[in-house]
Amino acid sequence: MTAASTVRTRFAPSPTGFIHLGNIRSALYPWAFARHHKGTFILRIEDTDVERSTQEAVDVILAGMDWLGLDIDEGPFYQMQRMPRYREVIQQMLDAGQAYYCYTSPEELDTLREAQRARGEKPRYDGRWRPEPGKTLPEKPDGVLPVVRFRNPLDGSVAWDDAVKGRVEVSNDELDDLIIARGDGTPTYNFCVVVDDLDMAITHVIRGDDHVNNTPRQINILRALGATPPVYAHLPTVLNEAGEKMSKRNGAMSVMDYRDAGYLPEAIVNYLARLGWSHGDAEIFSREQFVEWFDLAHLGSSAAQYDGEKLKWLNNHYIKQADDARLAALVEPLLRAEGLTALERPALASVVGLFKDRAATVRELAESAAMFYRVPAPAADALAQHVTDAVKPALAAFADALADVAWEKAAIGQAMKAVLAAHGLKMPQLAMPVRLLVAGTTHTPSIDAVLALFERDTVVARLRSAA
């Protein structure tokens, strides 16, 4: 890019279902490219599929982008609100001879295609209503609402240097005359996209490679309108863990489901950034580093495969780095949803600080933190295994010792060591029953750190309950 140029990118989702990680990657890359070049990032909602588009899906798109911090500079623009503009351009193209009315009925098209297939030919419109010098067009049939078709060039080819795929060239004789408006006057997807990209001065189209077959048609329409096509970068497919294309049908989760499952947005952004792009061997990097490093030259050309375990590993990294107060604010509603409301003592930030190194998600963090805010209910078989008659004297002695020590981790640890020495026990023989009686589980971090967060009276009472 030159210093004088202005990058303008866009994310143009269709609101016909939830947005999954494969979809949102097509927002992340154009967002990062615009931010890297101090350009403009635009959100465009392609809602012309009226029967399938929903406001709920729009809301999820907006919420997902907001959660991930993919801020927009312009929009959201809605295609359904731009219908007058599309019709204006269609009329201009009709007037200029760049488009024409076609009265071929659907039944005629079906018959045409069947005959072409029978001859081993590629099914395509044969141009019967395309005006040409010296050509006599058929009589306009009664009762047929004409579609509008674009006069695609007959000769030569359309080519572009794709930032991912390299040089792509398609012969124009492979492309028939595309319908740009249906019989009811509604413009078609490929036409709306072109007008939008033209009006919004899009310089770089970064999108999934499921759109690559549309690109030659869109370039030809852009050129007919006197525009220079943008730079195209078609991103390879994102596959699920089974190697299938990521989709709702194949079990993909909504972006917002990851939030609800306890993932941090910075982990998702970091993970998605590496799902088709790389900067050397860097695996973990901040949003700011990603924007600084991002370019089109290092986009991958092979399909990227989702790895849930790697995402959990990355999320654990960001949880460990996160501020305890921030994590507490995320954990609190999860605990309240479980009916735990007395969350003041111990301070929730202190609790999550104790557990965050071992938590892969915020939900796991909440599950661990819950032991501090509910009455323990250890399983009978666990009690029988660990709280034996042989250890009960040591439990009583430990309770007595804790009644007088300074209430801090180091002093509690020293008290436990003294009791172990006096009773000839090893650490697990005392720590396990203490964990069960106080926290209701045998799985906790260091026992002295755990006990220090409980109230002294609570710990002593629960230990003496074993007598």
TrEMBL record:
Reaction it catalyzes: tRNA(Glu) + L-glutamate + ATP = L-glutamyl-tRNA(Glu) + AMP + diphosphate
CDD domains attached to this UniProt entry: GluRS_core
InterPro entries (UniProt xref): aa-tRNA-synth_I_cd-bd, aa-tRNA-synth_I_codon-bd_sub2, aa-tRNA-synth_I_CS, aa_tRNA-synth_I_cd-bd_sf, Glu-tRNA-ligase_bac/mito, Glu/Gln-tRNA-synth, Glu/Gln-tRNA-synth_Ib_cat-dom, GluQ/Sye
Binding residue positions for ATP: 248
Chain ranges for the short sequence motif 'KMSKS' region as given in the UniProt record: 245-249
Enzyme class: ligase
Function: Catalyzes the attachment of glutamate to tRNA(Glu) in a two-step reaction: glutamate is first activated by ATP to form Glu-AMP and then transferred to the acceptor end of tRNA(Glu).
Subunit comment: Monomer.
Protein name: Glutamate--tRNA ligase
Lineage of the organism: Bacteria, Pseudomonadati, Pseudomonadota, Betaproteobacteria, Burkholderiales
